[in-house]
Amino acid sequence: MAIHTNTSAVYLCTNQELQVEAREEGFDFIFGTDVANNELSFLFESKFEPYQEYSRTDIKGIDLVLKLGDSFIRALEVKLTVIPDNTTANDRESDWGTELVIRPASTSYAALGIFDSIKPFRARLKEILEPTCSTIQHWDNTVEMLSKREEIIGCLNKIFTECSGQEKLATDL
Known about the structure:
By secondary structure, this protein is an alpha+beta fold. The protein is built from five helices and five strands; from the N terminus they run ββαβββαααα. About 5% of the residues are buried.
């Protein structure tokens, strides 16, 4: 049995219309297990090794990796924010917002997690992505990437719509 403190985390997800929704979830859900915390390993700034097979380069570490014995359970980015942030500090309190911090590992792990969740759809992913992505010569060229921006967003929206419901939830692990 997990240690319960009646504390929740804010969990961001998308709905069927691809709109971001925030909801509160308990840590059993967030951690992907109801095993007692003292049975888990909490590895900070560590690599979530199951995702390495999807990358040609080293995926580096992420904020928190949870393991149970030798089994990898979850890779999590931990975001600590301050309200108000520097863009809303001078506004009315009702208009305060949080700061969203994104670092390269966040983006990479998000993409790897999405791929891991929908890997049974690999052939369909290729059908959707290949017409747009196979023409990109230099992924680090800002001008070229901006010229493909709308096409890439369209591809991603199609993937998210077709694969909706395939996300890994704590109850699936």
